[in-house]
Backbone:
């Protein structure tokens, strides 16, 4: 009986260690994705601002258009 309990304890420890290892690996991947998402959001904001400027340039009159092009 003592040997059976000993073996079961070892199996339980090994299984628990495997689960913890996978959990930590998954958590690290989520953190990496979070950093990438922040960079993507920042890039999208910059691109949206550029599109707004271009839309404004296209919809303004020719005189204002020349001024905006000269500013760029």
Residues:
């Amino acid at each position: 009986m003592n040997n059976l309990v000993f073996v079961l304890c070892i199996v339980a420890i090994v299984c628990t260690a495997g689960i913890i290892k996978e959990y930590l690996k998954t958590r690290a991947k989520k953190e990496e994705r979070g950093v990438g998402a922040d960079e993507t959001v920042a890039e999208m904001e910059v691109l949206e601002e550029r599109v707004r400027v271009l839309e404004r340039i296209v919809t303004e009159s020719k005189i204002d258009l020349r001024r905006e092009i000269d500013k760029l």
In short: Helices lie at 2-59, 62-71.
